[in-house]
Amino acid sequence: MVTVLPENAGEIKPENKKTLRYSVRVKGNSGFVFMTNFQDHAERQDQENLQIEIKLPDESITIPANSGFTLKKETSAIFPFNISLDGVHLNYATAQLLTKLEDSEGMHFFFYKINGIAPEFQFDSESLKQIKKEKGRIENKNKHTYFYPEAGVNSTANIIKKNGSIVKITTLTREQALNTWNG
């Protein structure tokens, strides 16, 4: 993956409390946005009403598409964009990818909620048939399917692919993510 820094990256000084510190790692049209609101020996402030626009060769992606988010002080976040979840196209998520497991029903992806940021998943509607969930809400608009989960161990959603197979997504709280292990 190639690292892309903002044009003003070299001008950001440690005492600058207002400028968002971020970078993008990209390969082709997919990648991750890395953000941090932490600085050694300097008091930071919440970064409010943020939206990230990623300009790719074939498209631009705005994360999140419909409203801003707040990156709280002392917080870091990594948002994926344009990735395949076992054939389901995830345009972006405002939750951090933790791991994936394969079970008897297929692939199961685990994300976690960043403190202060509502998790939002935007999918390409053409890549899925339906989302079944117990908690959270789903919205369809402009060829996109939005899933707004309620974070927690019981937040698993089953994404039914066009061929009928299932991809699972669970969005954990940060505390739950910190206490996970893969065995």
- Which stretches of 5+ consecutive residues score pLDDT under 50? none
Specify the number of helices.
1
CATH superfamily: Beta-galactosidase, domain 2
Count of DSSP strands:
17
The CATH architecture comes to: 3-layer Sandwich
Beta-strand percent range: over 45%
CATH class: Mainly Beta
| Portion of residues within helices | under 10%
C-alpha end-to-end distance: 28 Å
State Rg. 17 Å
Q: Oligomeric state of the chains?
A: single chain
Kindly describe this structure.
This protein is mainly beta and 183 residues long. The protein has a single domain, classed as beta-galactosidase, domain 2 (3-layer Sandwich), CATH 2.102.20.10. The protein has one helix at 174-178; strands at 2-4, 21-27, 30-36, 47-50, 52-55, 60-63, 69-71, 76-85, 88-93, 96-103, 106-112, 121-124, 130-133, 137-141, 144-148, 157-160, 166-172. The strands form four sheets. An eight-stranded antiparallel sheet has the order 1-2-3-8-9-12-15-14, with no helix packed on it. The protein has a five-stranded mixed sheet with strand order 10-11-17-16-13. It has a two-stranded antiparallel sheet with strand order 4-7. A hairpin with a 5-residue loop joins strand 16 (157-160) and strand 17 (166-172). It is globular and about 50 Å long.
